[in-house]
Design a protein that fits this description.
Length: about 600
Amino acid sequence: MHRYRTHHCAALRSQDVGSTVKLSGWIHSKRDHGGLLFIDLRDHFGITQIVIPAGSSLLERAEKLRVESVICIVGKVVTREGMTINSKLPTGEIEIQAHELEVLSEADVLPFQVASNENYPEDLRLKYRYIDLRRERIHRNLMLRSNIITSFRRRMIEQGFTEFQTPILTASSPEGARDFLVPARLHPGKFYALPQAPQQFKQLTMVAGFDRYFQIAPCFRDEAARADRSPGEFYQLDLEMSFVTQEDIFETLEPIMEGIFKEFAPTHTVSSTPFKRIPYKQAMKEYGSDKPDLRNPLKLVDVSETFKNSNFGLFAKIVKAGGEVRAIPAPGAGSFPRSFFDKLNKWAREEKAGGLGYIIFDKNGAKGPIAKNLDETRYETIRKACHLKSGDAVFFVAGQGADMIKFSGAVRTKIATELNLIEKNAFRFCWIVDFPMYEINEETGLIDFSHNPFSMPQGGLEALNNKSPLEINAYQYDIVCNGIELSSGAIRNHRPDIMIKAFKIAGYPEEEVEKRFGGMLNAFRYGAPPHGGAAPGIDRIVMLLMDEPNIREVILFPLNQQGEDLMMDAPAPISTKRLKELSLSLNLPKIAIKKQIKNLEIEK
Protein backbone atom coordinates (compact mmCIF):
# COMPACT_ATOMS: atom_id res chain seq x y z
CA MET A 1 0.00 0.00 0.00
CA HIS A 2 1.23 3.52 -0.84
CA ARG A 3 2.87 5.47 1.99
CA TYR A 4 0.16 8.16 2.03
CA ARG A 5 -2.83 7.20 -0.10
CA THR A 6 -4.42 4.70 -2.42
CA HIS A 7 -7.10 7.17 -3.55
CA HIS A 8 -7.71 10.88 -3.39
CA CYS A 9 -10.66 12.28 -1.45
CA ALA A 10 -13.05 12.56 -4.38
CA ALA A 11 -12.37 9.17 -5.95
CA LEU A 12 -14.35 6.58 -4.02
CA ARG A 13 -17.85 5.46 -5.08
CA SER A 14 -20.38 2.76 -4.19
CA GLN A 15 -18.51 0.22 -6.36
CA ASP A 16 -15.56 0.55 -3.95
CA VAL A 17 -17.61 -0.71 -0.98
CA GLY A 18 -15.72 -3.44 0.88
CA SER A 19 -12.27 -2.19 -0.16
CA THR A 20 -9.59 -1.23 2.32
CA VAL A 21 -8.18 2.18 1.37
CA LYS A 22 -5.75 4.81 2.59
CA LEU A 23 -6.54 8.54 2.36
CA SER A 24 -4.58 11.64 3.39
CA GLY A 25 -5.78 15.19 3.74
CA TRP A 26 -6.88 18.04 5.97
CA ILE A 27 -9.60 17.77 8.62
CA HIS A 28 -12.23 19.99 7.04
CA SER A 29 -14.74 19.56 9.85
CA LYS A 30 -15.60 17.26 12.76
CA ARG A 31 -18.96 16.21 14.21
CA ASP A 32 -19.36 14.28 17.45
CA HIS A 33 -22.60 12.28 17.57
CA GLY A 34 -22.57 10.83 21.05
CA GLY A 35 -19.17 9.17 20.90
CA LEU A 36 -19.42 8.49 17.17
CA LEU A 37 -17.00 10.91 15.46
CA PHE A 38 -17.42 12.00 11.86
CA ILE A 39 -14.56 13.71 10.03
CA ASP A 40 -14.83 15.36 6.62
CA LEU A 41 -11.39 14.73 5.12
CA ARG A 42 -10.42 17.17 2.36
CA ASP A 43 -7.65 17.24 -0.20
CA HIS A 44 -7.15 19.08 -3.51
CA PHE A 45 -9.75 16.89 -5.23
CA GLY A 46 -12.66 16.81 -2.80
CA ILE A 47 -14.07 15.48 0.47
CA THR A 48 -14.70 12.01 1.89
CA GLN A 49 -16.49 11.33 5.16
CA ILE A 50 -14.55 9.33 7.74
CA VAL A 51 -16.31 7.67 10.68
CA ILE A 52 -14.60 6.62 13.90
CA PRO A 53 -17.05 4.47 15.90
CA ALA A 54 -17.59 4.62 19.66
CA GLY A 55 -15.08 2.51 21.53
CA SER A 56 -12.42 2.82 18.84
CA SER A 57 -8.85 3.22 20.06
CA LEU A 58 -8.54 6.11 17.56
CA LEU A 59 -11.34 8.14 19.11
CA GLU A 60 -9.47 9.95 21.89
CA ARG A 61 -6.61 11.00 19.61
CA ALA A 62 -8.96 12.15 16.81
CA GLU A 63 -11.11 14.19 19.19
CA LYS A 64 -8.09 16.26 20.26
CA LEU A 65 -7.09 17.22 16.73
CA ARG A 66 -8.01 20.69 15.50
CA VAL A 67 -9.57 21.29 12.10
CA GLU A 68 -7.00 21.73 9.30
CA SER A 69 -4.65 19.21 10.91
CA VAL A 70 -3.27 16.84 8.28
CA ILE A 71 -3.90 13.15 8.84
CA CYS A 72 -3.58 9.81 7.08
CA ILE A 73 -6.24 7.17 7.67
CA VAL A 74 -6.66 3.53 6.68
CA GLY A 75 -10.15 2.08 6.69
CA LYS A 76 -12.90 0.12 5.00
CA VAL A 77 -15.31 1.63 2.46
CA VAL A 78 -18.91 1.14 3.60
CA THR A 79 -22.30 2.22 2.23
CA ARG A 80 -24.20 5.13 3.73
CA GLU A 81 -27.81 4.33 4.45
CA GLY A 82 -31.00 6.34 3.85
CA MET A 83 -30.91 9.86 5.28
CA THR A 84 -27.13 9.75 5.77
CA ILE A 85 -26.51 9.85 2.00
CA ASN A 86 -25.14 13.27 0.94
CA SER A 87 -26.23 13.94 -2.64
CA LYS A 88 -24.16 17.18 -2.70
CA LEU A 89 -20.87 15.24 -2.61
CA PRO A 90 -19.59 12.93 -5.36
CA THR A 91 -18.50 10.60 -2.53
CA GLY A 92 -21.82 11.05 -0.67
CA GLU A 93 -22.99 7.43 -0.99
CA ILE A 94 -20.02 6.00 0.94
CA GLU A 95 -17.91 6.63 4.04
CA ILE A 96 -14.71 5.16 5.47
CA GLN A 97 -14.70 3.26 8.75
CA ALA A 98 -11.22 4.11 10.02
CA HIS A 99 -9.08 1.56 11.83
CA GLU A 100 -5.71 3.34 11.52
CA LEU A 101 -4.92 7.05 11.97
CA GLU A 102 -1.58 8.83 11.58
CA VAL A 103 -1.15 12.50 12.37
CA LEU A 104 1.08 14.02 9.68
CA SER A 105 0.86 17.62 10.88
CA GLU A 106 -1.11 19.26 13.71
CA ALA A 107 -2.73 22.64 13.10
CA ASP A 108 -2.63 25.56 15.52
CA VAL A 109 -5.69 27.68 16.20
CA LEU A 110 -6.71 29.15 12.84
CA PRO A 111 -6.84 32.91 12.16
CA PHE A 112 -10.12 32.23 10.32
CA GLN A 113 -12.16 29.18 9.37
CA VAL A 114 -11.67 27.32 6.10
CA ALA A 115 -15.07 25.59 6.27
CA SER A 116 -16.92 28.90 6.29
CA ASN A 117 -18.35 31.31 3.72
CA GLU A 118 -17.89 34.31 6.01
CA ASN A 119 -16.31 37.40 4.44
CA TYR A 120 -13.18 37.90 6.50
CA PRO A 121 -11.12 41.13 6.26
CA GLU A 122 -9.00 41.17 3.10
CA ASP A 123 -5.72 41.95 4.87
CA LEU A 124 -6.25 38.95 7.17
CA ARG A 125 -6.95 36.71 4.20
CA LEU A 126 -3.87 37.95 2.32
CA LYS A 127 -1.57 37.56 5.33
CA TYR A 128 -2.65 33.92 5.59
CA ARG A 129 -3.25 33.41 1.89
CA TYR A 130 -2.17 29.76 2.02
CA ILE A 131 -5.12 29.14 4.35
CA ASP A 132 -7.48 31.30 2.29
CA LEU A 133 -6.59 29.23 -0.78
CA ARG A 134 -7.91 26.10 0.95
CA ARG A 135 -11.44 27.57 0.86
CA GLU A 136 -13.59 26.02 -1.83
CA ARG A 137 -14.42 29.16 -3.85
CA ILE A 138 -10.87 30.51 -4.00
CA HIS A 139 -9.43 27.04 -4.70
CA ARG A 140 -11.93 26.63 -7.54
CA ASN A 141 -11.06 30.05 -8.98
CA LEU A 142 -7.36 29.21 -9.16
CA MET A 143 -8.03 25.85 -10.78
CA LEU A 144 -10.24 27.55 -13.35
CA ARG A 145 -7.47 30.05 -14.02
CA SER A 146 -5.05 27.19 -14.70
CA ASN A 147 -7.54 25.47 -17.00
CA ILE A 148 -8.19 28.70 -18.91
CA ILE A 149 -4.46 29.19 -19.48
CA THR A 150 -4.18 25.59 -20.68
CA SER A 151 -7.08 26.16 -23.08
CA PHE A 152 -5.51 29.38 -24.37
CA ARG A 153 -2.24 27.57 -25.04
CA ARG A 154 -3.98 24.78 -26.90
CA ARG A 155 -6.03 27.19 -29.01
CA MET A 156 -3.00 29.35 -29.84
CA ILE A 157 -0.93 26.37 -30.95
CA GLU A 158 -3.85 25.14 -33.07
CA GLN A 159 -3.85 28.57 -34.77
CA GLY A 160 -0.18 28.17 -35.71
CA PHE A 161 1.40 30.26 -32.92
CA THR A 162 4.73 29.38 -31.30
CA GLU A 163 5.37 30.08 -27.61
CA PHE A 164 8.48 32.07 -26.69
CA GLN A 165 9.71 33.66 -23.44
CA THR A 166 10.94 37.23 -23.58
CA PRO A 167 13.36 38.86 -21.07
CA ILE A 168 12.29 40.00 -17.61
CA LEU A 169 15.30 42.28 -17.05
CA THR A 170 15.16 44.92 -19.75
CA ALA A 171 15.23 48.68 -20.40
CA SER A 172 12.63 51.28 -19.49
CA SER A 173 9.89 51.84 -22.08
CA PRO A 174 7.07 54.42 -22.36
CA GLU A 175 4.07 52.10 -21.86
CA GLY A 176 1.94 54.61 -19.95
CA ALA A 177 2.79 53.62 -16.36
CA ARG A 178 5.80 53.72 -14.04
CA ASP A 179 8.45 51.03 -14.34
CA PHE A 180 9.75 48.87 -11.54
CA LEU A 181 13.51 49.44 -11.56
CA VAL A 182 16.22 46.94 -10.64
CA PRO A 183 19.69 48.29 -9.77
CA ALA A 184 22.49 46.72 -11.82
CA ARG A 185 25.23 45.78 -9.33
CA LEU A 186 27.89 45.37 -12.01
CA HIS A 187 26.99 48.69 -13.62
CA PRO A 188 26.83 51.29 -10.82
CA GLY A 189 24.25 54.01 -11.38
CA LYS A 190 22.41 52.04 -14.03
CA PHE A 191 19.11 50.16 -13.75
CA TYR A 192 17.17 47.44 -15.45
CA ALA A 193 13.39 47.79 -15.72
CA LEU A 194 10.88 45.00 -15.33
CA PRO A 195 8.80 44.90 -18.53
CA GLN A 196 5.45 46.68 -18.46
CA ALA A 197 4.74 44.43 -21.45
CA PRO A 198 6.95 42.46 -23.87
CA GLN A 199 6.14 45.09 -26.52
CA GLN A 200 9.50 45.65 -28.18
CA PHE A 201 10.66 42.06 -27.79
CA LYS A 202 7.60 40.58 -29.44
CA GLN A 203 7.98 43.01 -32.34
CA LEU A 204 11.64 42.08 -32.66
CA THR A 205 10.57 38.43 -32.73
CA MET A 206 8.59 39.26 -35.88
CA VAL A 207 11.59 41.11 -37.34
CA ALA A 208 13.64 37.98 -36.64
CA GLY A 209 11.43 36.05 -39.03
CA PHE A 210 9.08 34.14 -36.73
CA ASP A 211 5.53 34.36 -38.05
CA ARG A 212 3.25 33.98 -35.00
CA TYR A 213 4.40 34.45 -31.41
CA PHE A 214 2.60 34.08 -28.10
CA GLN A 215 3.32 33.68 -24.42
CA ILE A 216 1.48 33.88 -21.10
CA ALA A 217 3.49 36.96 -20.22
CA PRO A 218 4.13 38.46 -16.78
CA CYS A 219 3.91 42.27 -16.87
CA PHE A 220 5.03 44.72 -14.19
CA ARG A 221 3.60 48.21 -13.64
CA ASP A 222 4.04 50.47 -10.65
CA GLU A 223 0.46 51.71 -10.54
CA ALA A 224 -2.43 51.90 -8.11
CA ALA A 225 -4.80 49.01 -7.54
CA ARG A 226 -8.39 48.90 -8.76
CA ALA A 227 -11.07 46.25 -8.51
CA ASP A 228 -10.13 45.03 -12.02
CA ARG A 229 -6.39 45.80 -11.87
CA SER A 230 -3.80 44.21 -9.65
CA PRO A 231 -0.97 46.45 -8.43
CA GLY A 232 2.55 45.43 -9.35
CA GLU A 233 2.15 42.49 -11.68
CA PHE A 234 -0.36 40.80 -13.93
CA TYR A 235 -0.44 38.22 -16.73
CA GLN A 236 -1.62 38.54 -20.29
CA LEU A 237 -1.96 36.38 -23.37
CA ASP A 238 0.63 38.23 -25.43
CA LEU A 239 0.51 37.61 -29.18
CA GLU A 240 2.02 39.05 -32.36
CA MET A 241 1.58 38.17 -36.04
CA SER A 242 3.47 39.05 -39.23
CA PHE A 243 2.05 40.16 -42.58
CA VAL A 244 -1.37 40.92 -41.17
CA THR A 245 -3.98 43.64 -41.30
CA GLN A 246 -6.18 44.73 -38.41
CA GLU A 247 -8.97 42.44 -39.66
CA ASP A 248 -6.60 39.44 -39.74
CA ILE A 249 -5.93 39.90 -36.03
CA PHE A 250 -9.64 40.23 -35.27
CA GLU A 251 -10.43 37.08 -37.24
CA THR A 252 -7.69 35.19 -35.40
CA LEU A 253 -8.50 36.33 -31.86
CA GLU A 254 -12.30 36.31 -32.02
CA PRO A 255 -12.81 32.51 -32.22
CA ILE A 256 -10.26 32.06 -29.43
CA MET A 257 -12.13 34.44 -27.12
CA GLU A 258 -15.54 33.10 -28.12
CA GLY A 259 -14.34 29.54 -27.56
CA ILE A 260 -12.85 30.28 -24.13
CA PHE A 261 -16.01 31.95 -22.86
CA LYS A 262 -18.30 29.26 -24.25
CA GLU A 263 -16.08 26.55 -22.78
CA PHE A 264 -15.92 28.01 -19.28
CA ALA A 265 -19.34 29.71 -19.09
CA PRO A 266 -21.69 27.19 -20.77
CA THR A 267 -24.77 28.67 -19.04
CA HIS A 268 -24.16 32.13 -20.53
CA THR A 269 -24.87 33.64 -23.93
CA VAL A 270 -21.65 34.68 -25.70
CA SER A 271 -21.36 37.08 -28.63
CA SER A 272 -20.94 35.24 -31.90
CA THR A 273 -18.16 36.16 -34.29
CA PRO A 274 -17.54 38.56 -35.89
CA PHE A 275 -17.69 40.85 -32.87
CA LYS A 276 -19.17 44.31 -33.30
CA ARG A 277 -16.71 47.04 -34.40
CA ILE A 278 -17.33 50.48 -32.86
CA PRO A 279 -15.18 53.51 -33.82
CA TYR A 280 -13.79 55.35 -30.80
CA LYS A 281 -15.66 58.60 -31.53
CA GLN A 282 -18.95 56.72 -31.90
CA ALA A 283 -18.37 54.86 -28.63
CA MET A 284 -17.77 58.10 -26.74
CA LYS A 285 -20.85 59.66 -28.40
CA GLU A 286 -23.31 56.80 -27.94
CA TYR A 287 -22.04 55.16 -24.74
CA GLY A 288 -19.98 57.84 -22.98
CA SER A 289 -17.12 55.36 -22.70
CA ASP A 290 -14.51 53.58 -24.81
CA LYS A 291 -15.36 50.47 -22.76
CA PRO A 292 -19.10 50.13 -23.43
CA ASP A 293 -21.18 47.44 -21.76
CA LEU A 294 -23.32 46.14 -24.64
CA ARG A 295 -25.58 44.24 -22.27
CA ASN A 296 -27.06 47.68 -21.65
CA PRO A 297 -29.45 48.52 -24.56
CA LEU A 298 -29.52 52.27 -23.89
CA LYS A 299 -27.69 54.72 -26.15
CA LEU A 300 -26.92 58.37 -25.59
CA VAL A 301 -28.45 60.83 -28.05
CA ASP A 302 -27.01 64.25 -28.88
CA VAL A 303 -29.93 66.72 -28.59
CA SER A 304 -27.83 69.88 -28.47
CA GLU A 305 -29.50 71.39 -31.55
CA THR A 306 -32.91 70.98 -29.98
CA PHE A 307 -31.91 73.16 -27.03
CA LYS A 308 -30.09 75.73 -29.16
CA ASN A 309 -31.80 79.14 -28.70
CA SER A 310 -34.52 77.45 -26.61
CA ASN A 311 -36.32 78.92 -23.60
CA PHE A 312 -34.55 76.48 -21.31
CA GLY A 313 -31.80 78.97 -20.53
CA LEU A 314 -29.29 76.72 -18.76
CA PHE A 315 -28.95 74.23 -21.63
CA ALA A 316 -29.17 76.99 -24.26
CA LYS A 317 -26.19 78.76 -22.67
CA ILE A 318 -24.17 75.55 -22.52
CA VAL A 319 -24.80 74.86 -26.21
CA LYS A 320 -23.96 78.44 -27.14
CA ALA A 321 -20.64 78.14 -25.28
CA GLY A 322 -19.71 75.09 -27.36
CA GLY A 323 -21.04 72.44 -24.98
CA GLU A 324 -23.34 69.53 -25.60
CA VAL A 325 -26.64 68.17 -24.27
CA ARG A 326 -27.00 64.40 -24.19
CA ALA A 327 -30.28 62.55 -23.71
CA ILE A 328 -30.48 59.19 -21.96
CA PRO A 329 -33.74 57.30 -22.61
CA ALA A 330 -35.55 55.72 -19.67
CA PRO A 331 -38.19 53.39 -21.17
CA GLY A 332 -41.12 52.78 -18.84
CA ALA A 333 -39.94 55.29 -16.24
CA GLY A 334 -42.68 57.78 -17.08
CA SER A 335 -45.11 55.89 -14.85
CA PHE A 336 -42.74 55.88 -11.87
CA PRO A 337 -43.40 58.06 -8.79
CA ARG A 338 -41.62 61.37 -8.22
CA SER A 339 -39.34 59.67 -5.67
CA PHE A 340 -37.61 57.74 -8.49
CA PHE A 341 -36.55 60.98 -10.19
CA ASP A 342 -35.59 62.58 -6.88
CA LYS A 343 -33.39 59.57 -6.07
CA LEU A 344 -31.54 59.87 -9.37
CA ASN A 345 -31.05 63.60 -8.84
CA LYS A 346 -29.62 62.92 -5.39
CA TRP A 347 -27.25 60.33 -6.88
CA ALA A 348 -26.12 62.83 -9.55
CA ARG A 349 -25.28 65.41 -6.89
CA GLU A 350 -23.29 62.78 -4.98
CA GLU A 351 -21.35 62.26 -8.22
CA LYS A 352 -20.44 65.98 -8.14
CA ALA A 353 -22.92 66.87 -10.89
CA GLY A 354 -25.55 69.58 -10.62
CA GLY A 355 -28.39 67.09 -11.03
CA LEU A 356 -30.33 65.37 -13.79
CA GLY A 357 -32.93 67.18 -15.85
CA TYR A 358 -35.71 65.02 -17.24
CA ILE A 359 -38.89 64.97 -19.32
CA ILE A 360 -41.79 62.56 -18.79
CA PHE A 361 -43.97 61.61 -21.76
CA ASP A 362 -47.61 60.61 -21.33
CA LYS A 363 -50.73 60.52 -23.51
CA ASN A 364 -51.11 64.28 -23.10
CA GLY A 365 -47.61 65.13 -24.27
CA ALA A 366 -44.59 66.05 -22.15
CA LYS A 367 -44.29 67.25 -18.57
CA GLY A 368 -41.63 68.29 -16.11
CA PRO A 369 -39.60 71.48 -15.52
CA ILE A 370 -37.68 71.19 -18.79
CA ALA A 371 -40.78 70.42 -20.86
CA LYS A 372 -42.45 73.61 -19.61
CA ASN A 373 -39.70 75.60 -21.30
CA LEU A 374 -39.83 73.77 -24.63
CA ASP A 375 -42.41 74.08 -27.37
CA GLU A 376 -44.06 70.95 -28.73
CA THR A 377 -41.83 70.81 -31.80
CA ARG A 378 -38.70 70.67 -29.67
CA TYR A 379 -39.81 68.02 -27.19
CA GLU A 380 -41.33 65.93 -29.99
CA THR A 381 -37.95 66.09 -31.75
CA ILE A 382 -36.34 64.69 -28.57
CA ARG A 383 -38.99 61.99 -28.24
CA LYS A 384 -38.49 60.80 -31.82
CA ALA A 385 -34.68 60.94 -31.61
CA CYS A 386 -34.77 58.75 -28.47
CA HIS A 387 -37.52 56.41 -29.81
CA LEU A 388 -39.75 57.12 -26.81
CA LYS A 389 -43.47 56.53 -26.38
CA SER A 390 -46.13 57.40 -23.85
CA GLY A 391 -45.07 56.14 -20.41
CA ASP A 392 -41.37 56.67 -21.07
CA ALA A 393 -39.00 59.32 -19.74
CA VAL A 394 -35.69 60.84 -20.76
CA PHE A 395 -32.84 62.29 -18.68
CA PHE A 396 -30.31 64.91 -19.74
CA VAL A 397 -26.62 65.60 -19.12
CA ALA A 398 -25.16 68.91 -20.30
CA GLY A 399 -21.65 70.33 -20.36
CA GLN A 400 -18.43 69.90 -22.25
CA GLY A 401 -15.16 68.01 -22.10
CA ALA A 402 -14.11 64.68 -20.66
CA ASP A 403 -16.01 65.07 -17.39
CA MET A 404 -19.34 65.49 -19.18
CA ILE A 405 -18.66 62.49 -21.42
CA LYS A 406 -17.70 60.29 -18.47
CA PHE A 407 -20.73 61.35 -16.46
CA SER A 408 -23.11 60.72 -19.36
CA GLY A 409 -21.74 57.17 -19.53
CA ALA A 410 -22.26 56.75 -15.80
CA VAL A 411 -25.87 57.98 -16.12
CA ARG A 412 -26.49 55.47 -18.92
CA THR A 413 -25.28 52.67 -16.64
CA LYS A 414 -27.21 53.94 -13.62
CA ILE A 415 -30.54 54.24 -15.44
CA ALA A 416 -30.21 50.81 -17.06
CA THR A 417 -29.39 49.30 -13.68
CA GLU A 418 -32.33 51.03 -11.96
CA LEU A 419 -34.69 49.87 -14.72
CA ASN A 420 -33.25 46.34 -14.66
CA LEU A 421 -32.32 46.52 -18.35
CA ILE A 422 -28.85 44.92 -18.13
CA GLU A 423 -28.92 41.57 -19.94
CA LYS A 424 -28.40 38.65 -17.54
CA ASN A 425 -26.06 35.69 -18.05
CA ALA A 426 -24.39 37.12 -21.12
CA PHE A 427 -20.92 38.08 -22.33
CA ARG A 428 -21.11 40.79 -24.98
CA PHE A 429 -17.92 41.54 -26.91
CA CYS A 430 -16.99 44.42 -29.16
CA TRP A 431 -13.91 45.98 -30.71
CA ILE A 432 -13.25 49.69 -30.21
CA VAL A 433 -11.34 50.87 -33.29
CA ASP A 434 -9.95 54.05 -34.85
CA PHE A 435 -8.41 55.47 -31.70
CA PRO A 436 -6.87 58.92 -32.16
CA MET A 437 -3.11 58.76 -32.60
CA TYR A 438 -2.56 61.87 -30.49
CA GLU A 439 -4.27 63.89 -27.77
CA ILE A 440 -3.61 67.05 -25.78
CA ASN A 441 -1.79 66.28 -22.54
CA GLU A 442 -3.94 67.85 -19.81
CA GLU A 443 -0.92 68.65 -17.63
CA THR A 444 1.35 70.19 -20.27
CA GLY A 445 -1.13 71.31 -22.92
CA LEU A 446 1.13 69.71 -25.56
CA ILE A 447 0.54 67.02 -28.17
CA ASP A 448 1.12 63.53 -26.77
CA PHE A 449 0.45 59.93 -27.78
CA SER A 450 -3.07 58.90 -26.78
CA HIS A 451 -2.51 55.14 -26.88
CA ASN A 452 0.43 52.98 -27.95
CA PRO A 453 3.36 55.01 -29.34
CA PHE A 454 4.49 52.10 -31.52
CA SER A 455 1.24 52.02 -33.55
CA MET A 456 0.98 52.66 -37.27
CA PRO A 457 -0.90 55.88 -38.05
CA GLN A 458 -3.74 55.49 -40.53
CA GLY A 459 -2.46 57.08 -43.72
CA GLY A 460 1.17 56.47 -42.81
CA LEU A 461 3.80 59.13 -43.39
CA GLU A 462 1.52 61.16 -45.64
CA ALA A 463 -0.99 61.64 -42.81
CA LEU A 464 1.76 62.67 -40.38
CA ASN A 465 3.09 65.23 -42.86
CA ASN A 466 -0.20 66.70 -44.05
CA LYS A 467 -2.85 66.30 -41.34
CA SER A 468 -3.40 68.02 -38.01
CA PRO A 469 -2.14 65.57 -35.34
CA LEU A 470 -5.53 65.53 -33.59
CA GLU A 471 -7.21 64.41 -36.84
CA ILE A 472 -5.00 61.35 -37.29
CA ASN A 473 -6.34 57.97 -36.24
CA ALA A 474 -4.16 54.94 -35.59
CA TYR A 475 -4.54 51.26 -36.27
CA GLN A 476 -5.22 50.72 -32.58
CA TYR A 477 -8.00 48.69 -31.04
CA ASP A 478 -9.34 47.39 -27.75
CA ILE A 479 -11.43 44.30 -27.18
CA VAL A 480 -14.12 44.95 -24.57
CA CYS A 481 -16.47 42.57 -22.78
CA ASN A 482 -19.32 43.68 -20.48
CA GLY A 483 -17.77 47.09 -19.99
CA ILE A 484 -14.30 45.74 -19.15
CA GLU A 485 -11.29 46.25 -21.42
CA LEU A 486 -9.71 42.84 -21.91
CA SER A 487 -7.01 43.81 -24.36
CA SER A 488 -5.34 46.61 -26.24
CA GLY A 489 -3.61 46.03 -29.52
CA ALA A 490 -2.37 47.64 -32.70
CA ILE A 491 -0.87 47.25 -36.12
CA ARG A 492 2.71 48.29 -35.42
CA ASN A 493 4.76 51.05 -36.95
CA HIS A 494 7.47 48.99 -38.66
CA ARG A 495 9.17 51.79 -40.66
CA PRO A 496 11.93 53.92 -39.06
CA ASP A 497 11.02 57.07 -41.03
CA ILE A 498 7.38 56.92 -39.93
CA MET A 499 8.36 56.17 -36.31
CA ILE A 500 10.81 59.08 -36.10
CA LYS A 501 8.19 61.44 -37.52
CA ALA A 502 5.46 60.12 -35.19
CA PHE A 503 7.64 60.64 -32.12
CA LYS A 504 8.75 64.07 -33.34
CA ILE A 505 5.12 65.23 -33.37
CA ALA A 506 4.81 64.05 -29.76
CA GLY A 507 7.85 66.10 -28.75
CA TYR A 508 10.63 63.48 -28.98
CA PRO A 509 13.60 64.68 -31.08
CA GLU A 510 15.22 62.14 -33.39
CA GLU A 511 18.33 61.77 -31.24
CA GLU A 512 16.18 60.85 -28.20
CA VAL A 513 14.22 58.30 -30.21
CA GLU A 514 17.50 56.80 -31.43
CA LYS A 515 18.81 56.71 -27.87
CA ARG A 516 15.71 55.16 -26.28
CA PHE A 517 14.57 52.85 -29.07
CA GLY A 518 17.74 52.39 -31.08
CA GLY A 519 17.54 48.60 -30.83
CA MET A 520 14.13 48.49 -32.46
CA LEU A 521 14.89 51.21 -35.04
CA ASN A 522 18.09 49.47 -36.11
CA ALA A 523 16.19 46.19 -36.45
CA PHE A 524 13.60 47.87 -38.66
CA ARG A 525 16.41 49.21 -40.90
CA TYR A 526 17.34 45.64 -41.80
CA GLY A 527 13.90 44.68 -43.11
CA ALA A 528 10.78 44.43 -40.97
CA PRO A 529 7.47 42.83 -41.96
CA PRO A 530 4.16 44.59 -41.36
CA HIS A 531 2.98 43.14 -38.06
CA GLY A 532 0.51 43.58 -35.22
CA GLY A 533 -0.89 41.97 -32.15
CA ALA A 534 -2.85 42.19 -28.94
CA ALA A 535 -2.65 41.06 -25.32
CA PRO A 536 -5.86 39.94 -23.52
CA GLY A 537 -5.54 40.07 -19.74
CA ILE A 538 -5.68 36.63 -18.14
CA ASP A 539 -6.62 37.94 -14.69
CA ARG A 540 -9.56 39.98 -15.99
CA ILE A 541 -10.84 37.11 -18.12
CA VAL A 542 -10.88 34.75 -15.13
CA MET A 543 -12.48 37.49 -13.02
CA LEU A 544 -15.29 37.83 -15.57
CA LEU A 545 -15.85 34.11 -15.98
CA MET A 546 -16.03 33.56 -12.22
CA ASP A 547 -18.22 36.64 -11.68
CA GLU A 548 -15.79 37.89 -9.04
CA PRO A 549 -15.99 41.59 -8.11
CA ASN A 550 -12.27 41.87 -7.30
CA ILE A 551 -9.29 40.67 -9.32
CA ARG A 552 -7.43 39.52 -6.20
CA GLU A 553 -9.92 36.65 -5.89
CA VAL A 554 -8.43 34.98 -8.98
CA ILE A 555 -4.69 35.51 -8.33
CA LEU A 556 -2.67 32.96 -6.39
CA PHE A 557 -0.69 35.32 -4.16
CA PRO A 558 -1.85 38.90 -4.83
CA LEU A 559 -0.61 42.13 -3.31
CA ASN A 560 -3.03 44.24 -1.29
CA GLN A 561 -4.38 47.59 -2.46
CA GLN A 562 -1.23 49.34 -1.19
CA GLY A 563 0.97 47.04 -3.26
CA GLU A 564 2.17 45.06 -0.21
CA ASP A 565 2.67 41.33 0.23
CA LEU A 566 1.51 40.89 3.84
CA MET A 567 2.47 37.22 3.84
CA MET A 568 6.11 37.67 2.78
CA ASP A 569 6.45 41.20 4.22
CA ALA A 570 7.33 42.88 0.95
CA PRO A 571 8.44 45.47 0.05
CA ALA A 572 11.02 45.46 2.83
CA PRO A 573 14.07 47.58 3.66
CA ILE A 574 17.55 46.25 2.83
CA SER A 575 20.71 46.49 4.85
CA THR A 576 23.33 49.22 4.51
CA LYS A 577 25.77 46.57 3.30
CA ARG A 578 23.45 45.58 0.45
CA LEU A 579 22.90 49.22 -0.52
CA LYS A 580 26.66 49.69 -0.71
CA GLU A 581 27.00 46.67 -2.99
CA LEU A 582 24.47 48.27 -5.33
CA SER A 583 26.14 51.72 -5.16
CA LEU A 584 22.90 53.19 -3.78
CA SER A 585 22.12 55.72 -1.10
CA LEU A 586 18.65 56.59 0.18
CA ASN A 587 16.97 59.98 0.28
CA LEU A 588 13.85 59.12 2.26
CA PRO A 589 10.96 61.22 3.57
CA LYS A 590 11.13 61.68 7.36
CA ILE A 591 8.39 59.12 8.07
CA ALA A 592 10.13 56.51 5.91
CA ILE A 593 13.46 57.19 7.70
CA LYS A 594 11.88 56.37 11.08
CA LYS A 595 10.43 53.12 9.71
CA GLN A 596 13.78 52.21 8.13
CA ILE A 597 15.66 52.70 11.42
CA LYS A 598 13.08 50.67 13.31
CA ASN A 599 13.26 47.79 10.82
CA LEU A 600 17.08 47.76 10.85
CA GLU A 601 17.03 47.62 14.67
CA ILE A 602 14.71 44.63 14.49
CA GLU A 603 17.08 42.92 12.01
CA LYS A 604 20.01 43.35 14.44
